[in-house]
Write a structure and sequence with these properties.
Length: about 575
């Protein structure tokens, strides 16, 4: 048999990751103008996708006979994590035999990209040239990405219990429920905990809402285990019993099938007359579909990435190896690592790849004036740098021309980006500011006010602390526990994420792993922060944009019509 097949590979970025994916993405693949490797007929293409850090074969399409322009029916379904750089490689083969050994088939070309590039392209459609055969035009490969519908489903349910076992000596039990999702290896992961109902053997819990993916990871028949506990003040909660169900079962709603016996295995083994430790009944169930981060990206929402770097004297003389700004010929410094780790992921969601980059806390030539928001490229009209490499180049150049000084003022840069964000509040753009610093903020009161003002805008702030300083004061800005406030005003949303880089540095000195860990943590909140702004303003995702056709000889993403201001306009306040 003679046919074409495509294959794909994905990099499993952090082996420590055990989180539920943000969503599942279905990738459809087509090819155009493939090499003709058959003498008496057209090539028979097939596609392979490896997904890997150490490359492993993720999946293969079917083989399509006698065509140079295959549209593959079999899809690749991938877990999507915005905060990770998910590298893909697609290999295309001309299949001449039934052998699964790829060395037996003709290689037609390959293409490398990230999952973020596909999703972030106009309409989530990407066209790239195939390469890998010297001196040959291998044709093009086209992708379209779509979010699987069950990933956006949100389930709301309410349960009650009847005749639960009495566990407290001086009163009735104080019951609560703990839900666990089963994993493929037979273990269980906690996914929800109800409130405690005090002194009641027949409790009725409040309705609660949970993403379907968190409950079953898209597998409706996967076991869901529910433990029933009696709450104790000292944390040594008493186990009452357990029962199992599945998402498919609970989705039937209130019925005779959704009354569950609560069983305690120890009691069942000891007492012959043991029946159960009570029952739990599903009172109501409904499922709704929510807008997702991917919906907004597919509808054209752009992530505008801005960088601000600390140029205060506490960083040390850049020419000395002890400086945090030291430019070693052998490895990146912490500033460059943080910038590259975050920027290389966000850039996939910004179509023009022009990034404003600022420095703060330095004396500028020629008159030594102190600035807390100077463009790294020295262009006050257009502070944009082309690509992350352009930002790094401008950063290194600034180290050679400015004098490190102080103090460490954050508010000017936060306000600068906030002014840009205030001009575009229709959902077409969302601004992400990365600030990298070595020390404590000097203008905390002004920065808090700036953050409170920015919280009502389409904007998030990531602060990465580098070096050995104590960053305790920074936690005031990270509103995970207590929302930031200023002059009696509380921030509308939690938009700040602070982390010290030292917590993510790999002990073996692996910079790639250190950067991956950092990016994974600081970017994980961005999708929810974007959604919280859109929801607060009643903004719905726009329909997916149509992809523009690209020349087959082009090796970059399709040229798009951007909805964001031109670089000069985006930063005219600089």
């Amino acid at each position: 048999m003679d046919g074409k097949k495509a294959m794909a590979a994905i990099r499993d970025f952090d082996p420590l990751n055990s989180t539920v994916p943000a969503t599942k993405i279905e990738i459809t693949v087509s090819c155009r103008n493939l090499l003709d490797m058959d003498t008496f007929s057209k090539s028979d293409p097939g596609n392979r996708l490896p997904f890997s850090r150490s490359l492993f074969d993720f999946g293969r399409t079917e083989v399509i006979d006698n065509t140079l322009n295959p549209d593959f029916v079999r899809k690749f379904v991938l877990d999507f994590f915005f905060e990770e750089k998910q590298n893909l490689r697609f290999d295309v083969y001309n299949v001449d035999t039934r052998s699964s050994n790829l060395s037996k088939h003709d290689f037609l070309g390959q293409m490398f990209c990230t999952l973020g590039e596909i999703i972030g392209s106009t309409g989530s459609r990407l066209e790239r040239t195939l390469s890998g055969i010297p001196g040959k035009k291998c044709g093009t490969i086209l992708f379209s990405a779509e979010e699987l519908s069950n990933c956006r489903d949100i389930a709301t349910m309410q349960l009650c219990a009847n005749k639960l076992d009495k566990k407290d000596f001086f009163g009735k039990s104080d019951p609560f429920l703990v839900f666990y999702r089963s994993n493929e290896d037979g273990t269980f992961t906690i996914c929800h905990k109800t409130e405690v109902i005090k002194n009641n053997l027949n409790p009725v819990w409040q309705p609660f809402t949970i993403p379907v993916r968190a409950l079953c990871n898209g597998d409706y028949d996967r076991t869901v285990k529910v433990d029933v506990y009696d709450w104790d003040r000292d944390g040594s909660h008493d186990f009452i019993g357990e029962f199992t169900t599945s998402y498919r079962e609970v989705s039937r709603g209130q019925s005779q099938f959704n009354v569950y016996e609560v069983l305690n295995p120890k009691k069942k083994g000891k007492k012959k007359k043991y029946v159960n430790s009570g029952t739990v009944t599903l009172l109501s169930f409904k499922v709704e579909s929510e807008c997702t981060f991917v919906d907004f990206i597919r509808g054209g929402t752009q992530l505008n990435f801005t960088v601000a770097i600390d140029f205060t004297a506490s960083n040390g003389n850049p020419s000395q190896p002890t400086s945090l700004h030291y430019m070693s010929p052998y490895q990146m410094n912490a500033y460059a690592m943080a910038l590259k780790a975050v920027g290389e992921i966000i850039q996939d969601y910004d179509s023009d790849k022009h990034f404003p980059a600022y420095g703060f806390g330095a004396k500028l030539p020629p008159d030594g004036k102190i600035s807390h928001a100077f463009p790294l490229n020295s262009n006050t009209e257009t502070p944009n740098c082309v690509g992350i490499e352009g930002v790094l180049e401008a950063y290194f150049q600034s180290l050679r021309t400015v004098q490190l000084y102080g103090p460490t003022n954050f508010a000017p840069v936060v306000n600068q980006v906030a002014r840009c964000a205030a001009e575009v509040t229709d959902g077409s753009q969302y601004f992400v500011l990365l600030m990298i610093t070595d020390g404590v903020i000097s203008d905390m009161a002004q920065t808090k006010e700036a953050v409170v003002n920015a919280a009502s805008l389409p904007m998030s702030i990531i602060i990465v602390g580098v070096g050995p300083a104590e960053f305790d004061a920074m936690e005031e800005l990270d509103g995970d526990e207590v929302r930031v406030s200023s002059r009696g005003r509380i921030a509308e949303r939690d938009i700040v994420q602070f982390v010290p880089f030292r917590d993510y540095i790999d002990r073996s000195g692996n910079q790639v792993l250190s950067m991956a860990r950092l990016a994974k943590d600081v970017l994980a909140e961005i999708p929810d922060q974007l959604l919280s702004f859109m929801k607060s303003r009643g903004i719905e995702p726009r329909p997916p944009l149509p992809a523009c056709s690209d020349s087959p000889s082009m090796s970059t993403t399709t040229t798009t019509t951007s909805t964001k201001p031109a670089p000069q306009e985006r930063n005219r306040h600089a």
